[in-house]
Design brief:
Layout: H1 9-18, E1 20-28, E2 38-48, E3 54-63, E4 66-77, E5 82-89, E6 92-103, E7 106-115, E8 118-130, E9 133-141, E10 148-159
Antiparallel strand pairs: 1-2, 1-10, 2-3, 3-4, 4-5, 5-6, 6-7, 7-8, 8-9, 9-10
């Protein structure tokens, strides 16, 4: 008898869309991290985790606030019917946590972003999703109803990743 779990349809869908090596073209809105706004660029590698049950993400970029190094893991929670994202970066020693849901053709993650010792309400949205590109926006604020867009990232696929 084989009790090895298999990826859910939700994880298969996510892996199909996001696995790959990506170029990031980043636009920063004026704010605490980039008072004058600005641009940056970077790369991201997203690959299936063990057994295809998770998505593992590693990001490196540069911008007005300096280098950004981060990583995360996304899993599907069948009991809550949401994606669970845990994100860590060089901007905080405390992880950030998000719940993600499909809203039409867009994938939207809501949660708490920990940046430089402060917790903020945050929304990360993947829109205009195509096999080779998508738009990623980040909104942050003191509460869910006071969020403002802080970053827009144009993702362009550079290569597929098979493992």
């Amino acid at each position: 008898m084989n009790d090895t779990p298999t990826p859910s349809p939700e994880m298969k869908r996510l892996l199909e869309l996001l696995v790959g090596r990506w170029h990031l073209a980043i636009t920063y809105e004026p704010g605490p991290m980039a008072p004058k706004g600005g641009t940056g660029e970077g790369q991201e590698a997203s690959r299936p985790g063990p057994g295809g049950l998770t998505l593992l993400i590693e990001t490196n970029s540069t911008g007005p606030a300096g280098p950004y190094d981060a990583g995360g893991i996304i899993e599907w929670s069948p009991s809550e019917r949401v994606y669970k994202l845990h994100w860590v970066s060089n901007l905080s020693h405390v992880g950030s946590y998000f719940d993600g849901r499909w809203v039409g053709d867009d994938l939207v993650f809501n949660g708490t972003e920990n940046i430089m010792g402060q917790a903020f309400a945050s929304r990360h949205s993947l829109t205009n999703i195509r096999p080779d590109a998508f738009l990623y926006t980040i909104e942050i604020g003191p509460t869910q109803d006071q969020m403002e867009r802080t970053i827009t990232i144009d993702y362009t696929k550079l290569a597929d990743i098979t493992n």
